[in-house]
Amino acid sequence: MRNEMTLSFVAIEENEALARMAMTCFITPLDPTLEEISEFKTIVSEAVTNAIIHGYNCDGKSLVTIHAVIDDNKIIMTVEDQGEGIFDVEQAMEPMFTTKPLLERSGMGFTIMESFSDSLSVESMLGSGTVVRFEKTFSPVTEVSRMR
């Protein structure tokens, strides 16, 4: 099965939940386990929150765009903003690094996304925005595992 979608929304914190729910509905045909759903929702949440808070400083007028492709039992997804960009992607991906310590940001977003996905890449250019791309493969759920 192959399917594809694009979703754009205004960069406000309330739309993080919209993105998470829409993307979770999109992967429903893959019949993910509860653990896979939880991991996937966390990746989406972290990527979208980074775009809203770090890319746009919650400006409430710019757009975050998600593009997702389902191919067999795998999703390939990008979360893109046209915001500030990341000065040093390698440093930003280090655990505990944050540019917003006053907002009580833990600096674990990229680390969490990396641990829950099969692959994660981040491309960014100062003043032009950031694209977070990840892939996640879902295991087929068997009838036996559903009954547990």
From TrEMBL:
GO molecular function annotation: protein serine/threonine kinase activity
Coiled-coil blocks: none
Reaction(s) catalysed (UniProt annotation): L-threonyl-[protein] + ATP = O-phospho-L-threonyl-[protein] + ADP + H(+); L-seryl-[protein] + ATP = O-phospho-L-seryl-[protein] + ADP + H(+)
The organism's place on the tree of life at top rank: Bacteria
Positions of transmembrane segments: none
Record bears the keyword Kinase: yes
EC annotation from Swiss-Prot or TrEMBL: 2.7.11.1
Enzyme class: transferase
HAMAP family, sorted: Anti_sigma_F
Family stated for the protein in its record: Belongs to the anti-sigma-factor family.
Chain's role: Binds to sigma F and blocks its ability to form an RNA polymerase holoenzyme (E-sigma F). Phosphorylates SpoIIAA on a serine residue. This phosphorylation may enable SpoIIAA to act as an anti-anti-sigma factor that counteracts SpoIIAB and thus releases sigma F from inhibition.
Protein name as it appears in the record: Anti-sigma F factor
